[in-house]
Amino acid sequence: MEVFPGEVSLIIGSARVHEGLGDLDSSVKFYKKVFQYDASCVEAIACIGTHNFYSDMPEIALRSFRRLLQMGVYNTELYNNIGLCCFYAQQYDMSLTCFERAINLATNENVADVWYNIGHIAVGIGDSNLAYQAFQMALISDNNHAEAYNNLAVLEMRKGKVEQARAYFLSAITINQELYEAHYNLAILSEGQGDLNTSFKEVRKSLEAFAEHVDSKNLLAQLRQYFTLL
Asked: Above 60 in pLDDT, residue 3?
């Protein structure tokens, strides 16, 4: 890069390396540097947009994704991202419209993720029926979608269908042992049913997967206090 400082492929390569190493700040700096030499680089625009979205700046991320639309990029992932940005920017009608387009463009490989996100949006706006149907559609499209099993289980738990919820949580865990949400939710379910041993085991697995999960830490502390009193 010292010899060819303006070589876009080298700058993008550096950005990818830093992203792979988990150094997202440096990765973003390199992607922004790309714009000095190629203002229409699709990968750089998309990555900056994604970074802004996960930095809780959906409105700014939306600008990047809409720019890609103006450049003629039309695919499921783009409409999916725009739909999520619109939702978190409280543009709910536009969000659902984008997800409809994402579904129309989806393939067998990515349609399950679109349905999952629709379910996530439905939960956010309080439409449990739509959420339930969307998560079911995600599982019809991909029977190994652990996150969809987990969220279906939460909806079943709210309905008081404990055994069905437990079965869904176990399915999610079987598919993805690192899904801390499923371990934590199963721990909550078990604790509510008085099965404290299972709750203790699952909340520890949750923390093994995500050591900084505050709710899991709190539940573990409560369980340890209870066991101390026995």
From this structure: no
